Amino acid sequence: MPDKRPRKPAKRSAKAGAPRRGSRSARGQPGATRARAAESPAARKRRAVRILEALHELYPEATCALHHGDPWQLLIATILSAQSTDETVNKVTPVLFSRYPSPATLAAAPLAEIEEVIHSTGFFRQKARNVREASRRIAEDFGGTVPDTMEALTSLPGVARKTANVVLGTAFGQNEGVVVDTHVGRLATRLGLAWSAKDGKDAVKIERDLMELIPRADWTFLGHALIWHGRRVCSARKPACAACHLAPDCPSAGTFD
Ligand code: SF4
């Protein structure tokens, strides 16, 4: 990762609510909650804009890590990525798409054959049914073309708002929402950008908070960039706060020691 913003992480004093080492809050989230409580909405918005600017500098080319050649392939890959990793999905989709190169061919494929190909992604029986049925709907109801509206996409089996956001933002360039996966949920919480959510798993509230703070034109970028930062710097178990360029604007910085 290019080291473009050599900034020192901000120091958090005890007066500012820094949690004691070893306390529950020292593991991050409650400390961030206390810091957020004292912050005005205007100050939070200014801080969010600074974080966004830093993310643009750090990851100017942030994009979806799922390999795909068209919107249908991205949709199928995103359905397969649930409870899996992008790396695992990227290993199975070349085989899947070479055997079944279109919605119509996947819709006509025997379920057992799809299950065999996607087995390593987990929950393979349900996913096989979903990708086949979603492909059948696209072939029969949408003329073989993936629909480009939230309503139509979420009518497909296995497609909830998160998957639809991935497809709309990445394949169609539409900023309809922010993709909130496990990385985005965790980072939004640690960064104090999701003040109304109970925790990093409250995807609906996290997305709503992020949409309120971040300009619409950056909704898709924000999701990709937070995922990249979560993978490279702010991991679930061991966030590298000392090397993090977002630390000056992160209320959780240094609370994981
Ligand atoms: S790694 Fe960065 S974003 Fe994550 S908690 Fe530490 S300072 Fe905040």
Topology readout:
Blueprint: H1 29-37, H2 41-58, H3 71-80, H4 86-99, H5 103-107, H6 111-118, H7 124-141, H8 150-153, H9 161-171, H10 182-190, H11 203-213, H12 219-232
Iron/sulfur cluster binds at residues 190-191, 233-234, 239-241, 244, 246-247, 250, 252-253.
Descriptive account of the structure:
The structure is a single chain. The chain is an all-alpha fold. It folds into two domains: 24-63 and 178-249, Helix-hairpin-Helix base-excision DNA repair enzymes (C-terminal) (Endonuclease Iii, domain 2), CATH 1.10.1670; 71-171, Hypothetical protein, domain 2 (Endonuclease III, domain 1), CATH 1.10.340. It is 51% helix and 0% strand. The chain has helices spanning 29-37, 41-58, 71-80, 86-99, 103-107, 111-118, 124-141, 150-153, 161-171, 182-190, 203-213, 219-232. Helix 10 crosses helix 12. The longest helix has 18 residues, at 41-58. Iron/sulfur cluster binds next to loops.
Descriptive tags:
257 residues, mainly alpha, Endonuclease Iii, domain 2, Endonuclease III, domain 1, 2 domains, elongated, disordered N terminus, binds iron/sulfur cluster
Concise summary:
The chain has 257 residues and is mainly α.
Q: Per CATH, which architecture of the largest domain?
A: Orthogonal Bundle
Question: Rg, please?
Answer: 20 Å
Structural class: mainly alpha
What is the domain tally?
A: 2
Bound small molecules, which ones? iron/sulfur cluster
Mean pLDDT: 88
Order of helices and strands: HHHHHHHHHHHH
CATH level 4 superfamily of the largest domain: Helix-hairpin-Helix base-excision DNA repair enzymes (C-terminal)
- The biggest beta sheet, please? none
How many distinct beta strands?
A: 0
Shape: elongated
